[in-house]
Automatic annotation (TrEMBL):
This is Phosphatidylglycerol--prolipoprotein diacylglyceryl transferase. It comes from Bradyrhizobium nanningense. InterPro entries: Lgt. One of its GO terms (biological process) is lipoprotein biosynthetic process. Pathway: Protein modification; lipoprotein biosynthesis (diacylglyceryl transfer). Its EC number is 2.5.1.145.
Length: 281
């Protein structure tokens, strides 16, 4: 083995085991992502300075919304994986659709599930859709960070083969080729999690929540860019491989996000920030 090649850490698949109950790393990432996201959302809603007055969403409403967005993530993520990544297999094995413990979730499907949850909840509770979308996407990088770390711990969704002289190249135990590869899960954790969260937090600090749709648009645009960048280091799903012109499914699904995100940002800028109560008109 080359001197610089890093051994993949030997992680156990079970994160927490209490008697007959076992929680795997991926499930723990979902649980912690939702809990931490909920706490962060509450802290943003409590800070009236960020909204130029009382937030348009109450703390009780965001508490109720947690169940909706959780269902959106799970149902949308699984549906997206079935449709976008492995439809022929699931047509032949429909019962496997419900075996979530075997893995298989799509971010793009989960995002669309969240969009449905946001629109439905906002309509039922008569709250601004764009503001609810802003608060949802402001906290989303927390879950993305933990999810990518769980991918790494599970030794799945590994990167493309690289030269063994790369100091951080790894051989993943489940890789049948046993080639040194990029730990692309960590690249994505840094871009989709830490970088995206930091950029959105800075935007919020400078008043982006006062322009409904701004954070939502920035999240969609930046995620699309970081996902496309990350796909250059990530090995495509074996059942799909590379598509047209060397593109991957993740790249293709992210391209519309660039357009939608840019449109939302432009509309938010043109719309301007709402005037505070009592301002001269």
């Amino acid at each position: 083995m080359p001197f610089l090649l890093i051994d993949f850490p030997a992680f156990k698949p079970i994160a927490l085991e209490i008697g007959p109950f076992a929680i795997r790393w991926y499930a723990l990432a979902y649980i912690c992502g939702i809990v931490f996201g909920w706490l962060y959302a509450r802290s943003l809603l409590k800070n009236e300075r960020l909204w130029a007055g009382p937030a348009p969403i109450s703390l009780l409403q965001v508490d109720d919304f947690i169940l909706w967005v959780t269902l959106g993530i799970i149902l949308g993520g699984r549906t997206g994986y079935v449709l976008f990544y492995n439809l022929p297999f699931f047509i032949d094995h429909p019962a496997a659709i419900f075996k979530l413990w075997e893995g298989g979730m799509s971010f793009h499907g989960g995002f669309l599930g969240c969009v449905v949850a946001v629109m439905w909840f906002a309509y039922r509770n008569k709250i601004p859709i764009l503001s609810l979308g802003d608060i949802t996407t402001a906290v989303a990088p927390v879950g993305l960070l933990l999810g990518r770390i769980a991918n790494f711990i599970n030794g799945e969704l590994w990167g493309r083969a690289t030269d063994a002289s790369l100091p951080w190249a790894m051989i993943f135990p489940n890789d049948p080729t046993q080639l040194p590869r990029h730990p692309s899960q960590l690249y994505e954790a840094g871009m989709e999690g830490i970088l995206l969260f930091t950029v959105l937090a800075i935007m919020i600090r400078f008043g982006a929540l006062k322009r409904p749709g701004m954070i939502l648009g920035a999240f969609i645009l930046i995620y699309g860019l970081t996902r496309i960048a990350g796909e250059h280091f990530r090995e495509p799903d074996a059942q799909l491989g590379f598509l047209w012109g060397g593109l991957t499914m993740g790249m293709l699904l992210s391209i519309p996000m660039l357009i939608v995100g840019l449109i939302l940002i432009v509309l938010a800028v043109r719309r301007g920030a709402p005037k505070p109560l009592g301002a001269i008109r």
